[in-house]
Design a protein that fits this description.
Number of helices: 9
Radius of gyration: 17 Å
Distance between the termini: 27 Å
Bound molecules: cobalamin
CATH class of the largest domain: Alpha Beta
Strand content: 5-15%
CATH topology of the largest domain: Rossmann fold
Number of strands: 5
């Protein structure tokens, strides 16, 4: 499991895949391969990213290794009935096409065992509501990188409340602040992808 975690940390896709296969063949429980190998590795990357010890390319490469291993592990997890930690709907809000940060947050959440429904960019309140009705999320996450698109977050929160959707709402993106979060009535804000996972877990615990 340590070797598998290391493969994710190094972004070594080939080793992550072969070690996952080996672990499955050795009869190790899929849930343990996920949490003690893949998620453990992504957790280390998250902490290093937060501490500025690694940067966006390393995170993307680690996430790619994890994704490749997950393709092999996922059917086994489903066979064993392993439930995801929680479901999150994530998107960049209407009018905004920036998705690098949103994708990092999505990857970190996936790495922590969340089921992530990614609605992409330029997401209207109608699309959020439609997806929320379909997927019944525990959490709704919104990203905005433009000061001109930040106000869309408030409209989406209003629509969520009007529709009686009970999911917690978290927001982020470079111009977003805790003050803005409090002002528009979101449940939480975090400044980066690693602390977004901590925030998500704390809101759901
Ligand atoms: C890359 C980029 C682009 C790319 C986007 C490519 C892509 N696929 O995303 C392109 C070239 C398309 C682009 C276009 C534009 N851009 Co631009 N862009 C940037 C740039 C340089 C980097 C953004 C980025 O990816 N940062 C790296 C990521 C990792 O950081 P992040 O997004 O902040 O995400 C982190 C946190 O914020 C947080 N987070 C993010 N989302 C969420 C969500 C949740 C729920 C949580 C908890 C946390 C969280 O976690 C992330 C990881 O740690 C910024 C400058 C900057 N320094 O921010 C300008 C910037 C955002 N752009 C800007 C502008 C003006 C534009 C354009 C309007 C330019 C134009 N005239 O056409 C267009 C707008 C297009 C549109 N409608 O969206 C301005 C915005 C100014 C403002 N005050 O609003 C900036 C600040 C540049 C500047 N200094 O002027 N842009």
């Amino acid at each position: 499991m340590q070797a598998l975690a290391d493969a994710v940390i190094k972004g070594d896709q080939a080793s992550a895949v072969s070690l996952t296969k080996e672990a499955i063949d050795a009869g190790i429980a899929p849930a343990s391969i996920l949490s003690d190998g893949l998620v453990a590795g992504m957790g280390v990357i998250g902490v290093r990213f937060k501490n500025n010890e690694v940067y966006i390319p390393e995170v993307l490469i680690a996430a790619r290794a994890m994704k490749a291993a997950m393709e092999i592990l996922e059917p086994k997890l489903i066979e064993c009935g392993v439930e995801p930690v929680a479901t999150v709907i994530i998107a960049t809000v209407a009018g905004d096409l920036h998705d690098i940060g949103k994708n990092l947050v999505a990857m970190m959440l996936k790495g922590a065992g969340f089921r992530v429904v990614d609605l992409g960019v330029n997401c209207t309140s109608e699309k959020y509501i439609e997806a929320a009705k379909e997927h019944n999320p525990d959490l709704i996450a919104m990203s905005a990188l433009l000061t001109t698109t930040m106000p869309a977050m408030e409209g989406i929160i209003q629509a969520i409340k009007e529709e009686g959707i009970g999911a917690k709402v978290i927001i982020g993106g470079a111009p977003v602040t805790q003050v803005f979060c409090d002002k528009i009535g979101a449940d939480g804000y975090s400044p980066d992808a690693a602390s977004a996972v901590v925030l998500a877990k704390s809101l759901l615990s």
